[in-house]
Amino acid sequence: ETGVTQTPRHLVMGMTNKKSLKCEQHLGHNAMYWYKQSAKKPLELMFVYSLEERVENNSVPSRFSPECPNSSHLFLHLHTLQPEDSALYLCASSQDARTGSEQYFGPGTRLTVT
Amino acid sequence: GEDVEQSLFLSVREGDSSVINCTYTDSSSTYLYWYKQEPGAGLQLLTYIFSNMDMKQDQRLTVLLNKKDKHLSLRIADTQTGDSAIYFCAESNPHRAGNNRKLIWGLGTSLAVNP
Fold first, then answer.
1. What confidence tens digit (pLDDT) does each residue in A50-69 have?
2. Tally of CB atoms within 10 A around B114
3. pLDDT per residue as tens digits for the range A98-113
4. Burial of B8 by CB count in 10 Å (0-12 exposed, 13-18 middle, 19+ buried)?
5. Is the minimum CB–CB distance between A29 and chain B shorter than 8 Å?
6. Across the interface, which of A6, A43, A98 has its CB nearest the CB of B105?
7. Long-range CB contacts (within 8 A, 24+) of A99-102
8. What pLDDT does A56 receive?
9. pLDDT at residue B96, as a whole number
10. Taking the CA of residue A28 as centre, how many other CA atoms within 13 Å lie in the half-sphere pointing to its CB?
11. Is the predicted pLDDT of residue A1 greater than 70, yes or no?
12. Minimal CB count within 10 Å: which of A36, B96, B98, B101?
């Protein structure tokens, strides 16, 4: 595997379910990101981790819970989501979390909340 | 707040040049980026330009920056069907108050290349 991988690629879940999205980067980077991409909206930065420490949380509802056990892996735990949470969730990594550090994106998880 | 705007659609014929335009509001933007998103894929960084540059060329891609007008453009020469994708403009400013890691993104321009 190379680059940034995400699993699953597609996920359908009910509002009462609990699920997790997984991201893995094989680039030796120290920073990882979760983004939400919704139709007709700009890309929204959700969380930033640098060296496994969360350095940014952009007012994301608590039903989204990130976890970064090491610099190569990032999870997004989901529970009691709402239909408006349906979107493409993108993971990215970069060498470090400084502005301007080139971000490499995974293919995304297409989430549908029913 | 800061904003980035792009036209939503562009259609060109194969072999022609494509020009995708972007405007931004933060006059202190330091880095300006162009990302490409193909169907079913994540975003791929195509190129970026520092605010102290006017132009950057990389093979078929030419980026022009007009700081006075806060206008960025991406020109794709000899556009191919494989260039069909959504192109996102983004900017960042490490000195921005509050959230200096955040990229400000446009909504993306969907480029359709017709054979």
1. 888 887 777 899 999 999 99
2. 11
3. 766 788 999 999 999 9
4. exposed
5. no
6. A43
7. A99/B30, A99/B31, A99/B92, A99/B93, A99/B94, A99/B100, A99/B101, A100/B30, A100/B31, A100/B92, A100/B94, A101/A31, A102/B45, A102/B48
8. 75
9. 75
10. 0
11. no
12. B98
Structure tokens belonging to residue B13: 């014929």
Task: Give the integer Cα–Cα distance in Å for A39 and B68.
Answer: 31
Chain B residues with CB under 8 Å of A50 CB are none
Which residue would you say has higher pLDDT here, A22 or B101? A22
Q: What is the mean pLDDT of chain B?
A: 92
Q: Does A16 touch chain B (CB under 8 A)?
A: no
- CA–CA separation, A84 and B66 (whole Å): 38
pLDDT for B97 equals 66
Backbone angles phi, psi at A45, to 5 degrees: -75, 125
